[in-house]
């Protein structure tokens, strides 16, 4: 089932075109990671999809409702608000109860406390939001997005500014929500995190989605050769690589030398046996040799 369907959507602010034709379909139960540089237009798309601002052209449907009938499905969508929109003078638990009532969530105090605990806010209950740190405000805004048991949860940078343990809790929470059949649309600048938790990733660049696929597909598509990290003593230097390359008749590129590691590139893993033998036959002491797979960061940098 299609939860989000966007076709040729555009948005400009004055003369500046930010979204230049977005096509995107997100299915039920997916965790979709949406990434892009600062100012790429990720929040702009979220604001359009949630009815905060209007698109200029194109169309979209959310939970089967077209853009002009978003009100019909708003209660089924949980959106993490910007932390500047939280009611600072309210106590956290009262805030959740109040926001919950607005979406028909009449949970008990125990349920709200349990929600706070699940996102790492145990022990802070009954504090006024204005006394919260930045990270705590992010957490309570994630809690707000979960009120009313929404089917689609939209999280804009849920883990930025959050301590590592809480970020892990939030990732675990996202996995649990997915197990319950929820669809999660999230943005993050932490590409390792996106790689870990997303079923599919979209990279927004210059107003369009330039890369779309599973993290694995994107990483494999970007592979041009095999990168091999070699740790030797002494550290392998560029001149020695040239000599080795000639000796074994394998094209070996030196990508980088970082401390005791030398990062090499060969065209295929069939070149590895010859390379390891040549290293052992030379006077190098070979401590480690491992294939370094591309990361989403590499894909992102090329997008
Ligand atoms: N209300 C507005 N009026 C004019 N320009 C705007 C407005 N809102 C956003 N922009 C501009 O649109 C572009 C996209 O902004 P947006 O916040 O969507 O990017 P983003 O990808 O979410 O960035 P970040 O990763 O930094 O959060 C930016 O250049 C921003 O300055």
Mind explaining what this structure looks like?
With 303 residues, this protein is of the alpha/beta class. 33% of the residues lie in helices and 30% in strands. It is built from ten helices and 14 strands. Strands 6-7-8-3-9-10 form a six-stranded mixed β-sheet, sandwiched between helices. Strands 2-1-4-5 form a four-stranded antiparallel β-sheet, covered by helices on one side. The chain has a four-stranded antiparallel β-sheet with strand order 12-13-11-14, covered by helices on one side. Helix 8 (238-248) packs across helix 9 (272-281). The longest helix is centred in the middle third of the chain and has 16 residues, at 164-179. The protein is elongated. The model has no long low-confidence stretch (mean pLDDT 92). The site of adenosine-5'-triphosphate has 10 residues, from helix 1.
Proportion of residues in extended strands: 25-35%
Mean pLDDT, to the nearest integer, reads 92
Radius of gyration: 24 Å
- List the uncertain runs: none
Helicity range of the residues? 25-40%
Note the run of SSEs as H and E.
EEEHEEEHHHEHEHEEHEHEEHEH
State the strand order across the main sheet: 6-7-8-3-9-10
What about the largest sheet? 6 strands, mixed
Which outline best applies?
Answer: elongated
The unique ligands bound to this protein are:
adenosine-5'-triphosphate
Class inferred from helices and paired strands? alpha/beta
Number of H/I helices:
10
Cα distance spanning the termini: 29 Å
Got a strand count?
Answer: 14
Subunit organisation of the chains: single chain
Keywords: ATP-binding, Nucleotide-binding, Transport
Domain ABC transporter: 4-231
GO molecular function: ATP binding
Organism: Virgibacillus siamensis
